[in-house]
Amino acid sequence: xxxxxxxxxxxxxxxxxxxxxxxxxxxxxxxxxxxxxxxxxxxxxxxxxxxxxxxxxxxxxxxxxxxxxxxxxxxxxxxxxxxxxxxxxxxxxxxxxxxxxxxxxxxxxxxxxxxxxxxxxxxxxxxxxxxxxxxxxxxxxxxxxxxxxxxxxxxxxxxxxxxxxxxxxxxxxxxxxxxxxxxxxxxxxxxxxxxxxxxxxxxxxxxxxxxxxxxxxxxxxxxxxxxxxxxxxxxxxxxxxxxxxxxxxxxxxxxxxxxxxxxxxxxxxxxxxxxxxxxxxxxxxxxxxxxxxxxxxxxxxxxxxxxxxxxxxxxxxxxxxxxxxxxxxxxxxxxxxxxxxxxxxxxxxxxxxxxxxxxxxxxxxxxxxxxxxxxxxxxxxxxxxxxxxxxxxxxxxxxxxxxxxxxxxxxxx
Amino acid sequence: xxxxxxxxxxxxxxxxxxxxxxxxxxxxxxxxxxxxxxxxxxxxxxxxxxxxxxxxxxxxxxxxxxxxxxxxxxxxxxxxxxxxxxxxxxxxxxxxxxxxxxxxxxxxxxxxxxxxxxxxxxxxxxxxxxxxxxxxxxxxxxxxxxxxxxxxxxxxxxxxxxxxxxxxxxxxxxxxxxxxxxxxxxxxxxxxxxxxxxxxxxxxxxxxxxxxxxxxxxxxxxxxxxxxxxxxxxxxxxxxxxxxxxxxxxxxxxxxxxxxxxxxxxxxxxxxxxxxxxxxxxxxxxxxxxxxxxxxxxxxxxxxxxxxxxxxxxxxxxxxxxxxxxxxxxxxxxxxxxxxxxxxxxxxxxxxxxxxxxxxxxxxxxxxxxxxxxxxxxxxxxxxxxxxxxxxxxxxxxxxxxxxxxxxxxxxx
Lengths: 413, 413
Prior knowledge:
The structure is a homodimer of 413-residue chains. The first copy, chain A, has 413 residues and is α/β, with parallel strands linked by helices. Chain A has two domains: 27-57 and 305-412, Aspartate Aminotransferase, domain 1 (Alpha-Beta Complex), CATH 3.90.1150; 72-299, Type I PLP-dependent aspartate aminotransferase-like (Major domain) (Aspartate Aminotransferase, domain 2), CATH 3.40.640.10. Chain A contains 14 helices and 14 strands. The first copy, chain A, has helices at 21-25, 30-34, 58-71, 73-77, 86-98, 113-125, 140-148, 196-209, 232-235, 269-283, 288-299, 303-329, 354-364, 393-412; strands at 44-45, 106-111, 131-136, 152-159, 162-163, 179-183, 212-216, 246-251, 263-268, 333-335, 343-348, 366-367, 369-370, 383-387. In chain A, the strands form three sheets. An eight-stranded mixed beta sheet of chain A has the order 2-9-8-7-6-3-4-5. In chain A, strands 10-11-14-13 form a four-stranded antiparallel beta sheet, covered by helices on one side. Chain A has a two-stranded parallel sheet with strand order 1-12. The first copy, chain A, is globular and about 60 Å long. At the A-B interface, helix 1, helix 3, helix 4, helix 6 and helix 7 of A face helix 1, helix 3, helix 4, helix 6 and helix 7 of B. Chains A, B: This is PLP-dependent aminotransferase family protein.
């Protein structure tokens, strides 16, 4: 017997923890590891999914905080209602109504970011083995959340009209889907926007089949050109029976600041009440401090000018990126320029393997996300996602030059 | 066929939503409904579980917010790490070390209140049908969380030494427990503190049986007299093999302000890494805005004086409540005065049914929580929980006078 067995915990055999089956199946993204190198300052990162920090309205948020603490400190600092602070709920409801969404028969719940809205809906609806339909390529954190609730995710391919929802009629489902989850405008990563025709079709399908459609709309506020499409929640008013089968989530992360961690979830009232019970078990309520600051910020009237500034900067950046890519790669790289959002989704027509390209790109001083990272199963290898939100036009052009250098080296190698 | 079938969605049959089995089993507390009347200003509420709002250090938090937004606005407003903001994690780690807790081999995760810490641990460990051991009476939101993760909760009775952990040896478990969850000092609702002897015994049991013990310590900072006991996490250093089987959660809700929604979770590193993946699916991360404000607040050095003020007020209130109860009820109401926390747990020796008493108490202008609300199954009917944190000594005395009036009426009736 070893003599040191009790001298140090480190010499004992490592304990074996029995994780839940669902937690054990959660994997850390290998791309996350690869991209740690992208956090160095000299790397021009087109890999992130962040809004531009230098555009945050710090001055407005500072004033809003002072207003919140001066007006009613207890509201900001005490426990609050699970559904959310009244002032913020009313402000968000007003925003929804401005977008043509009638709220009769629906209720709005403030969430800890829209990620929590996904988790709430997942836990509200999904039992082990249930089917969720998503678009493919997918927002991976949503897949993780649905998987953590025990669900299996099936993907709808995308084209220039967004997710091919008509495929819902012909897909072979192991069981009837419980949920269809779509990022409707400017999807992450593809940038695709669901067309009006498909929105109507989907609503009719949802009403006919009694399946909840959850519309995730984080990027709609970042539209810089083109016609704004009515949301599924707004359109549902014209499709008999559809209103009862549409949920909607959005966030202040892109319009104001992600650090507040404020999103919201609109559901038919019967579902919203059950959703509040689920949320209560998750975190009692979302930070009332952040909520009161946001309510004062929205009441302060600075948001429209702030959004105009953000949209202007993103448009300039997106155009710079697109132009540089066209000049650097010509026909070797295809993409369609989206009318907003934060992402460009491109593919190499010469079959370049973007995952293999990434180390060379990082070595050349730029970062992107290989497209296969956004697929749960079989994935094309020739895609990449480029974010244009956080870098200046000049740095975006330099980033593209570095990408071209890496690409050329890979073609020679 | 009705002619109005398409004129109004309200005339259509209400849709039937298929909730997940776990969400469908979540019930709204009937006590919550009863106590809505307690929110009226003329009602003296001893029913709440809130800290005293008038004692919040608004001035300190205002200064901390300005410091956070002036020093590094991007840190407060941008997306952050799932594990938490570095400055806050370091400050919380320093607090843990001050309490004798060695952090080698452990990691600290910032959570959206300690409620989320419970949810993270539940989802990390629990599969359908798993067993969690709790104390009885119980913190109900913890039971809800464990149930939402599919677990069944079994209760340890309490006595003056806290939960009777020795019963773990003789309880008939349907399967080996995955988790023991205990509020160690000043439990809610009982106010009981787990004795040093039982802490040691529990750690030996956990190491021998390889079962995680989660220590929830929201109220330890509210100790006003008596000897502070070492936490399970601190004691575990002296019990061979125990460190690997102790988790710990606490919160800034009682020390600073609940509205920040900031808690933390300390786990052995291997579990903490898996916990971060779970948390990422839940809300990406906790509000970086609230975290940076809290980090600046803790760095500002005002907390000790603030806590002294809070403890002084709570002690005065608790004493006033206890004295008034002794004078009003004599031997008809038994309780032991805790050395801290926010709650008094009492029982009527004359067999008064406290749930039946509540309407009369509300009618007389005071509120409490009937004790049976804190039991999942069979419950004694003669207990009640009285909170002393939010009312002044004068209002507490008046509240007791109203309770006595209701009690006398109930004895006549």
